[in-house]
Amino acid sequence: MKTAVTAGVLTLGFACAVCAQEYPVKAIRIVTSPIGGGNDFPARLIALALAGPLGQQIVVDNRPTVLIADIVAKSPPDGYTLLLSGSAHWLGPLFEKVNYDPVRDFAALTLVDRSPTVLVVHPSLPAKSVKELIALAKARPDELNVAVGGTGSSNYIAAVLFGQMAGVNMTRIPYKGNAPAITALLSGEIQVMFSSAGAVAPHMQSGRLRALGVSSPQPSPLAPGVPSIASAGVPGYVSEVLHAMFAPAKTPPAIIGKLNAEVSRYLRSAQARDIFIKAGIEPSPSTPEELVAIMNAEMARLGKVVKVVK
Q1: What is the value of pTM for the model shown?
Q2: Cis geometry, peptide bond prior to residue 202 (ω within 30 degrees of 0)
Q3: Taking CA atoms, which of 32, 83, 174, 188 is between 20 and 30 Å from 61?
């Protein structure tokens, strides 16, 4: 019996290796959020870049954000259905119930990119630094309005974490997307926002918005001249926007390895770096193991935030 089991395992391993060598033999789809969103941009660049090396069409399948993880989790683990999602994929479940486990139901493929959010305020606000904003918010508790996206979104977490670590209370105003929130900030409807660097860069340059800090541990080339929030008044503050790729759990390791190699090769190219940096994000490929470690660390750190919010 032992010999039969061993032979079976060897046969299965050989079959997986052969499968990986032949893979892919048909089109691959990358399931991601609706067109124009933060997930869609890197998904389309990666799809274009992989089509040649893999020799197959790579289709971007845009679905409602709330459905994308569930779709991929329930797909066959054969490497033909992939997920590209932001950090809300693994942080969202901390805030609200979902139909998937971000670690158990997926095979990590690679981190794709990272970018800090930029803390920006309407120029009419009498705060020209992070410390001045904190002082103003403490003097006027709940009077300042800060824009946020859905629960668990990057700017929601950035705002909640800032409030906790700085010891201030601002009223969170939800918006369905970054664009309407920026419009509200430009009009003075709200006073404070955490936004991706690329989305607010033109308004920072024109003076229509004032940047006070970036949420990365160190100053970022994506927001030249803007200090980190950690160094400007809130020590230890970090809240970055991440995008990553996944396959369904139990996808053969050889296929994961092949996809990781091709995606990483593209993300490390000068062409990719130029396109991503101009869009306000930094390509950051990783090994599958590094991505899992990042996810676990973020869930542990931000789990403390959730306990306070709930």
Answers
A1: 0.81
A2: no
A3: 174
